[in-house]
Amino acid sequence: MKVASIATAAVLAALAPVALAAPSPLQPLPIHVRDGDVDDAQAQYNNLTAAIQQQVLQSLNSTEAKLRKRGQTPSCTARNIVFRREYGSLSQADRLAYVNAVKCLQNLPARTPANVSSGARSRFDDFVVTHIQQTLTIHYTGNFMPWHRWFVYTYEKALRDECGYTGYQPYWDWPRYASAPQNSPIFNGDPYSLGGNGEYIPHDGPVITPPAGVGGDPIQLPAGVGGGYVTTGPFANMTVNLGPVGGLVGTAAGPDGGLGYNPRGLKRDVGPAMNTRYANYTTVLNLLMKPNITEYRLLSEGVPYTVEIGPHGGIHYTISGDPGGDLFTSPGDPAFWVHHGMMDRMWTYWQAIDPAKRQTDLNAGTYGHVTWANDPPSALTQLTDVIDMGYAGPSTTIGEVMSTTSGPFCYFYL
Ligand SMILES: *[C@@H]1O[C@H](CO)[C@@H](O)[C@H](O)[C@H]1NC(C)=O
Ligand SMILES: *[C@@H]1O[C@H](CO)[C@@H](O)[C@H](O)[C@H]1NC(C)=O
Ligand SMILES: *[C@@H]1O[C@H](CO)[C@@H](O)[C@H](O)[C@H]1NC(C)=O
Ligand SMILES: *[C@@H]1O[C@H](CO)[C@@H](O)[C@H](O)[C@H]1NC(C)=O
Ligand SMILES: *[C@@H]1O[C@H](CO)[C@@H](O)[C@H](O)[C@H]1NC(C)=O
Ligand SMILES: *[C@@H]1O[C@H](CO)[C@@H](O)[C@H](O)[C@H]1NC(C)=O
Ligand SMILES: [Cu+2]
Questions:
Q1: Where is 198: in which H helix or E strand?
Q2: Which ligand is nearest to the CA of 189?
Q3: CA dist., res. 184 & res. 156, Å (int)
Q4: CB atoms within 10 A of CB 109
Q5: Distance, CA 169 to ligand 3 centroid (Å)?
Q6: pLDDT digits (tens, 9 = 90+) for 314-326
Q7: Does 148 fall in a domain?
Q8: Residue to mutate, 115, 118, 133, 256, ligand 3, most ligand atoms under 8 Å from C-beta
Q9: Which CATH number fits the domain that encloses residue 334?
Q10: What range does the domain containing 286 cover?
């Protein structure tokens, strides 16, 4: 199969604006998953994801056929679409190429001016700065999924355009290693991993403290099997420059609201407890079965300040450590990007089940507003709202990124 680059697809899209105006031929996908008994959640999840992949490729084919009949040229087809793959299913050479591209990004100069962030030292840090600056307006908000889709794409594009990477952003299939993520190809510390776990230090897990006014007792989450510095694999002794914003156990808050220079070693606390509790096969199957975006996001992101933190939070805390345990600075751990690759994969698959509806629907429920969980009450998020990448890359609008097979995109997940 000849695979054109995403950049080529974007150019074709620009040359063929008529094609983009074509009516959507996508129909809801008939899915047959048994309710209740989820003993075979893994098999059902694998069945469902395979069916979705097949459906998307077929619908690209039928769109292409219809457009060609009218003398139009489609931009994204089953032949030029590119695929993001699971980290552990990449060959060792492909994993190494990815790792080396991330290291390259960490060695390129920052574009962020010092008067915006005196701590940003690399292109990699540009992404961390953008996330720190916008944390409070891109989580539990209507733009959460689109914003992070464009964030991951911009990172992938930087790896490709600035660091010569020829692959695509890999993802972390959360349930796949849930019983021992520290031994997974992502964290086993071999030369093809994203670095090992932190060194084992006896400790308690993170505590979620509800803010004044929200009420409720602090929630103790389980610890991982690391806790200290990462000393093995490609990111052993990696220096974290930015954050943490609010401070972490054993690490005081960094200067300038996390944007100042605060060099320190990368720490992790990877382990099975968070992963099995919050991101198992039942979780991902249930997620794909959710009937609307409100329900989807309540499972995916959980209910703030309750023990149900969802796979989004559950996997952030499966990485944990510093900066992984700090919501603001979390993109400063290279593992953030495979986690958010999976976040985007789940949303992409869920959207593909009923694309006409789910590629436009984003602002329902408490998480559909421009303020964090609509507190204080605010306007609904709109498709025309801007996604600002700061110095990480170009900005766009939410409407541009609602489908991964149109507009600037032509990618899907295997
Ligand atoms: C998966 O799909 C196959 C073939 O369609 C079917 O025979 C099997 O029962 C399915 N398994 C589950 C757990 O749904
Ligand atoms: C799409 O069409 C191509 C030929 O143009 C074919 O090889 C491929 O199998 C089709 N894919 C699907 C999923 O139907
Ligand atoms: C940073 O400095 C540049 C040029 O020196 C200036 O144009 C810009 O407004 C400054 N930005 C901030 C946030 O102070
Ligand atoms: C990491 O730092 C420690 C302590 O400075 C040192 O002993 C170790 O060799 C370093 N490891 C790597 C892979 O650079
Ligand atoms: C699997 O995840 C769900 C949350 O999605 C949780 O309720 C359940 O307890 C988890 N299963 C195990 C074995 O921890
Ligand atoms: C979403 O689905 C739930 C469960 O079926 C339902 O109670 C709720 O009304 C739906 N919300 C919207 C906005 O459609
Ligand atoms: Cu985020």
A1: strand 198-200
A2: 4
A3: 22
A4: 11
A5: 33
A6: 999 999 999 999 9
A7: yes
A8: 115
A9: 1.10.1280.10
A10: 91-397
